[in-house]
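Journal club side-thread
Mid-discussion, someone asked how the predicted structure for our own chain would compare to the paper's figures. Pasting it here so we can look after the session.
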Amino acid sequence: MSELTHFDALGRAIMVDVSEKTETVREAVAQGEILLGKEAFEAVKKGTVKKGDVLATARIAAIMGLKKTSELIPLCHPLPLTHASVEFEMIEEALLVRATCTVRTKAVTGVEMEALTGVSVALLTIYDMCKAVDKGMEIGRICLLKKSGGKSGDYVREAGE
């Protein structure tokens, strides 16, 4: 198991010193899901949610949110992001919306936290916009699907992980 890097020799939380790391292109892809009731799912699908276009709003919210990751997550480095995208898949038979967020940078540290933050904000936005119809929605299965770049190399989540 890797040594935890956000602690000093005395066990105190620290921001990792990345000044000696090499700048590389780094990318991360994260995914998560929100389970909706039938009425809320249909409203999102048909675009009849009173607050507006749910998925378009969630996409913008996700991008805005991921750009603020270092303000939300303690000890996270602010990064010059070069790309961010959010895609949605509506899975009717399960009544769920799957969000996938891809983030890229050319920097000395990775963008996993930004991708995970983007997915989380997207799903929370869907909840907020649909809560008048369904307060029982469930957010879950938020995970890193893959990442590339940096000293630790590539990671791809195994099926069933």
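Post-session note: DSSP finds four helices and five strands in the chain.
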